[in-house]
Specification:
10 helices; globular
Length: about 270
């Protein structure tokens, strides 16, 4: 029996499972392949998919507000919205953080005692809402989004929850907004990066140069695996994966204390030493 994989999950493990299924399909009709070999492939696929499912099952439930936003995001025809020129960029359900990532973010915000958060990459607002749930009543989250449609979508939903008042949305390119925050004298306890991958290293260098964090602040970066391209020579290399690899290397320098976690497509937690 195969586990269900949603279209929003793109971890390297599940990519491997999909490839193994294709190999199994080709081998099934091959007379030289024994049934025990096919069974072994099935067991590997099941192990991979079951681990992903088990992680979700053994993680605390998301709130009803998060669950509703998850469903709304998945049901929205983002491709049609782009083709109708309502959005400036091609938005996809895969841009939304998973339940596991959302709960991890909420946990990190809660245990760190963060009061002011910066998010680069809002999309439908799922990760922003998860982090806002972990903030104290007087906490503040500023989320940067380049696409007006996504910003309006998220704003509308966030305002329907008790946490919308904690979230401020800034529209524009993240690199420009990072300069604006410096001019405004902003500093953040927690920064979550899930924006344009071809600018990942630039985000880190600008955050440091603009003194937007202190040694007590936490950096959290999503998609640090780039579907395996960051560590597998067999995966297609892109400008995005090369930029993320450079950022990953930067965060291993002595200037940072960094831990990379195999959460979905990889998540890094880092802070200045």
């Amino acid at each position: 029996m195969e586990n269900k994989i949603t279209k929003k999950t793109e971890s390297p493990n599940l990519i491997l499972a999909q490839r193994l299924k294709k190999i199994k399909k080709k081998l099934t009709n091959c007379k030289s392949i024994e049934e025990s070999d096919i069974t072994e492939i099935d067991s590997i696929i099941y192990m991979i998919e079951s681990q992903e499912q088990y992680l979700d099952e053994c993680t605390s439930y998301e709130s009803s507000d998060l669950s509703k936003l998850n469903k709304l995001t998945m049901q929205t025809d983002w491709n049609r919205i782009f083709l109708e020129k309502k959005s400036n960029v091609r938005l996809m359900t895969q841009m939304m953080s998973s339940k596991l990532s959302g709960q991890l973010l909420k946990m990190l915000v809660t245990i760190s005692g963060a009061k002011k958060i910066l998010e680069l990459g809002l999309f439908s607002g799922y990760s922003a809402l998860a982090m806002a749930e972990g903030l104290p009543d007087h906490g503040k989250l500023i989320s940067c989004e380049i696409d007006p449609y996504a910003a309006a979508f998220a704003r509308s939903y966030l305002d329907s929850t008790p946490y919308g008042k904690k979230v401020q949305i800034r529209l524009g390119p993240a690199l420009n907004l990072l300069d604006n925050f410096m001019q405004e004298g902003e500093s953040f306890d927690f920064i979550f990066i899930d924006a344009k991958k071809t600018e990942y290293k630039q985000y880190i260098t600008k955050i440091i140069a603009n003194k937007l964090i202190t040694k007590q602040s936490i950096l959290c970066i999503d998609n640090v695996f780039m579907k395996g391209a960051c560590f597998s020579k067999f995966e297609k290399q892109t400008n995005g994966s090369n930029e993320v690899k450079q950022m990953n290397q930067l965060l291993t320098s002595e200037k940072f204390f960094t831990v990379m976690l195999p959460v979905r497509d990889g998540m890094t937690i880092s802070k200045l030493r």
